[in-house]
Design goal:
single chain; alpha+beta; Immunoglobulin-like; 4-stranded mixed sheet; 3-stranded antiparallel sheet; 3 helices; 37% strand
């Protein structure tokens, strides 16, 4: 009888084991605040005097509303535009490790509105949010 109980115990122990993913990732409330960044090709000399003098890049705010196991990574999953040039956008814009978008002061991005899909991922999980951030080049 003890052998039967032991065998049943071992059987259920093996059945209960499965490949559990490490960590978690919740992006239901993910957003940027504000979700739009305006990049000026010819910035106003009075309002943007410091940026013009030091050639500071345009930098967005970081992403908000993510819960998950660190490290959490971000990358551009896609760019949509009706009036811009996606290739020049990819050459100039970067999504930093802190989830902020950075556009160099001197850039060759064509004027237009760019809707950016962001891939948010960590070990075992990957989610893409469409049109999560907007960059307007004017």
């Amino acid at each position: 009888m003890k052998q039967i109980i032991y065998i049943l115990f071992m059987f259920f122990a093996f059945i209960a084991c499965d490949d559990t993913k490490v960590g978690y990732l919740e992006v239901d409330e993910v957003s940027y605040d504000p979700n739009t960044m305006i990049v000026q090709k010819n910035p106003d000399e009075e309002e943007e005097a410091d940026r013009i003098e030091r050639k500071y890049p345009w930098v967005s705010s970081p992403i908000q509303g993510i819960l998950g196991t660190y490290p959490i990574h971000y990358k551009i999953a896609g760019v949509h535009t009706s009036d811009g040039d996606v290739e020049s956008f990819y050459n100039e814009v970067q999504l930093r490790g802190d989830s902020c978008f950075e556009v160099p002061f001197e850039n060759s991005i064509k004027e237009g509105t760019y809707y950016i899909d962001v891939n948010i991922y960590n070990q075992g999980y990957s989610l893409v949010r469409d049109s999560l951030f907007i960059i307007v080049v004017e």
